[in-house]
Amino acid sequence: MRLRKGLRGCLFCLAAVTVLIMAVACSPSSEGNKTTTPPTVEQPVSEQGPPSGETGESGTGTDSGNLSDAEDEEETATGDEESETSAENMNGSAGQLYAITFEAMMELDEGLNHEMNYIAVDLSEMTQLTEDDKTYIIEYLQDFGTEIRDRTMDQLMEEENPEQSSPSLKGVLLRVDKVEINEDSAQIEGSKYRSGTGAVGAKITLKLEEGAWKLSGSEMTWIS
């Protein structure tokens, strides 16, 4: 009986020692077996492009800009073509004849052009002119870089200073007094007026070449 108790005690002790040995073997050792966790490296944040919606808007804006530029160029080209076509349609017309005549008058005694505020053309007696003729004349003379008016002397005086005893204008008045037109030529007499002491008479000669009026000659016939 005592022998059994002794064996049982030995077995119990042996089991306890075994468990203790296994526990020691499995427990982490000191610094040699210690697991080291690597430091966390902060990754750089990559730059992100704009959201797809913004990209689309930006792209659309650029495309719209390009499209707008293209449309503007097309409209400009169309406008130029229309202007050229309009000018070509006026070849040989009364509008072209008098536009060139008035231009030639303006180049006579250019001292009268000094500090002029406008160029006035008296078309009141020229009943043969159409509205297209008148419009062409006004547009043609705009190359002089000033306002173009369709006025008579009385209208200009009423606008500027109706109480003046001696008419003196802030601009230049061009008038046609006599016209001779043949099959392929024309001679026009008129005047360029600034004041009672600043005016010239003009004789303008034109030829019809290839269906269009062209200046042939110009001269002053009198000076005041």
From TrEMBL:
Please list where the region (Disordered) is annotated: 28-92
PROSITE patterns in the record, alphabetically?
PROKAR_LIPOPROTEIN
KW Signal (keyword) present: yes
- Give me the stretches of Acidic residues compositional bias: 69-85
Top-level taxon of the source organism: Bacteria
Keyword annotations from UniProtKB, A to Z: Signal
Residues spanning the signal sequence: 1-25
- Bias category Low complexity: which stretches? 46-65
Extent of Polar residues compositional bias: 28-45
Q: What is this protein called?
A: Uncharacterized protein
